[in-house]
# Entry
Amino acid sequence: MYPSLSGPAGAHHQPKSKTGSGILFPFKTSKRSDFEQIVRAVDEMFFSEENAKLWCLGVEGTTYSVKDGKVVFIDEIRNSSEGIYKSLQVRYGCGSDVTQMVWVNSREMTKYDENYARINAEVEAMGDVIQAIPPTPKFDDRQAEEAGTLQTPLSDAFERWNSAFLTGSKSIDKDWDAYVKEMKSLGIEKFNDLYNANL
# Structure
């Protein structure tokens, strides 16, 4: 994770959802008489402090120990050729996006090298470098059709220009205005207005 770029190259960031993944119940489950107990059990299973730590690090004494307040993984995991992160997932079934619902950054950083942890700390100190994923607009059928009609050529043009900028066949400094002009001609302003009016 690196600091965001500035200028015509972007205010680049990787959008992240603050909620991430979660547990969904079928509608029929919500009609069960024991639905509240089911929700409480799932809540305990994934979101309690004890189990959040279990899903992240594994079992203390089996996958890691705590020395001087720091998490130290067992040699088998720490010295694994696939790295701590992958080793925890493959060998012990923890530390994965699928099962780990609570992410505590200081815990997460124990799985990576010092350089990665340092970069994360620097970026975190900057504030708002990684922005939340924007909300989804609530279009009615007509608006959804109009948005889709506008979005398809805009997405195609973006992919073409993005590839050209990345490969160097187009220059961000010299060709940026042409890119903006094309996106405007394809209706990006109309699309933005439609999108923002329906949030």
